[in-house]
């Protein structure tokens, strides 16, 4: 399953037996479900918006009768990050609109950015058409653009800043006031995990740490992780990274520990000179036996989860029964 999952991913960290569980593929590569995190945006206001495109119905009598857009703009904003976008609500009749409750998140997806490329939040102001404008063949098709703009939010995504409060200038004039934050997605890195850099954190000019190198989390303090990695020549190096910069690729659990402990005697034998020779001869059979053992191993994990669920259900049922009994003895007075 891990091998099949890895083939579908955009991010493929450098594989090392040292960082994987018993020399297999990294097992936690898919926990983010294709989403690195969420760029969180709060739209506050815009000012000095102006239109460049006019429909025929906006001119003369049509404008006065309300068939086309009047002198005031009815704007809304369309924000985008990579391949995903979000459109806000419209404010009727204002070139200087404000939004009281316009907060949303745009997913930052894996594969949308090249390694080391900045994360850009794009915005396009648009003006809604009237019903008559939308059906008349002689008018501009689609909502009219009020201009486009963009802001680099890489520092927020990397964790260098908690929040960005900025005005984004639009190409047709005017600007948009936004607050921008970021929330990572996936398993929270913990001590003992093996992690890898997200695409936006990979720097080709970094001579210390390779952009695809796996890192082992030694400790954490707040939003920062103290990690070790294998340097050239085999030595271990250490580096501090922000939690936003990495994602989990391997994590050991309780059953993994039991499995490794059970395999230690055979590992000791196979590590000897004669054990290596025997392993080469028996490799096809050992591999086949390992494949047969996997269903039992994963079934064991399922059984443990089922028992935990049953115990929790029993406790909750007992609590509910006790509550019902107390309620029967002490009826509520109206």
From TrEMBL:
Pfam families: C2 (PF00168). It comes from the Eukaryota. Residues 38-165 form the C2 domain. InterPro entries: C2_dom, C2_domain_sf. This is C2 domain-containing protein.
């Amino acid at each position: 399953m891990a091998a099949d999952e890895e083939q579908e991913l955009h991010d493929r960290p450098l594989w090392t037996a040292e960082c994987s569980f018993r020399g297999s593929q990294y097992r936690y590569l898919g926990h983010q479900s294709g989403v690195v995190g969420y760029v969180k945006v709060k739209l506050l206001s815009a000012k000095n918006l102006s239109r460049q495109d006019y429909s025929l119905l906006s001119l003369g009598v049509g404008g006065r009768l309300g068939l086309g857009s009047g002198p005031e703009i009815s704007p809304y904003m369309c924000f985008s990050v990579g391949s995903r976008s979000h459109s806000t609500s419209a404010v009727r009749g204002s070139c200087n609109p404000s939004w009281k409750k316009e907060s949303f998140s745009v997913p930052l997806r894996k594969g949308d950015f090249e390694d080391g490329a900045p994360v850009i939040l794009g915005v396009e102001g648009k003006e809604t058409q009237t019903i008559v404008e939308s059906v008349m063949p002689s008018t501009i098709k689609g909502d009219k653009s009020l201009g486009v703009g963009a802001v680099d939010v890489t520092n927020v995504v990397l964790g260098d800043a908690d929040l960005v409060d900025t005005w984004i200038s639009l190409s047709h004039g005017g600007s948009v006031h936004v607050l921008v934050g970021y929330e990572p997605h996936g398993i929270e890195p913990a001590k003992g995990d093996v992690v890898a850099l997200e695409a936006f954190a990979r720097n080709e000019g970094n001579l210390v740490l390779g952009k695809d190198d796996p890192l082992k989390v030694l400790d954490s303090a707040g939003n920062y992780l103290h990690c070790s990695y294998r340097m050239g020549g085999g030595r271990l190096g250490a580096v501090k990274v922000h939690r936003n910069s990495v994602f989990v690729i391997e994590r050991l659990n309780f059953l993994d520990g039991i499995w490794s402990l059970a395999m230690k005697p055979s590992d000791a034998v196979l590590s000897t000179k004669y054990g290596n020779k025997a392993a080469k001869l028996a490799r096809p059979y050992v591999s086949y036996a390992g494949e047969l053992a996997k269903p039992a191993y994963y079934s064991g994990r399922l059984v443990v989860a089922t028992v935990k669920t049953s115990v929790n259900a029993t406790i909750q049922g007992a609590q509910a029964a006790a509550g019902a009994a107390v309620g029967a003895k002490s009826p509520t007075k109206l």
